[in-house]
Amino acid sequence: xxxxxxxxxxxxxxxxxxxxxxxxxxxxxxxxxxxxxxxxxxxxxxxxxxxxxxxxxxxxxxxxxxxxxxxxxxxxxxxxxxxxxxxxxxxxxxxxxxxxxxxxxxxxxxxxxxxxxxxxxxxxxxxxxxxxxxxxxxxxxxxxxxxxxxxxxxxxxxxxxxxxxxxxxxxxxxxxxxx
Length: 179
Prior knowledge:
The chain is an alpha+beta fold. The protein has helices at residues 44-47, 51-65, 82-90, 124-129, 169-177; strands at 5-9, 14-18, 20-27, 34-42, 72-74, 94-99, 104-107, 115-116, 131-135, 144-152, 155-161. It has two domains: 1-70, no CATH class; 71-81 and 90-179, no CATH class. The chain has five helices and eleven strands, in the order ββββααβαβββαβββα. The protein is globular. The mean pLDDT is 92. This is Transposase.
């Protein structure tokens, strides 16, 4: 099969040969039911598209062609680029993006140098309510809320969102658990 390639598999926790699929799934947060809305085969040698390109195409298709009603986009760390977050924001949607541990951030209003998200200092209140930050490379007036979300005893995710109504680390954890 032409589209078979070496790629990382989350299920296998390693590199395997397979066909890369990028999925767009709708999840009803109240019933926990989900539906496959769209999918694309990741084959950059054939179509020149990145995984992020495919996700952007699927979101535009869901919104404009299928006219689906949704307000929030949940993605994995892989998709949490500045470009993608701005794309979702410009669609008028909220994003919840776990960001990589080495992403450079600084607290809102701070003139200090950007530093890895893991090096931020957190007050008890910020651990509960989130912290307003700016990601390096984002427009100067684009701030977002960052939550430090414990996933297990040995792993913490840092989740960035443009949702101004989100004021609870626990609720952010619940939202992210749906993906």
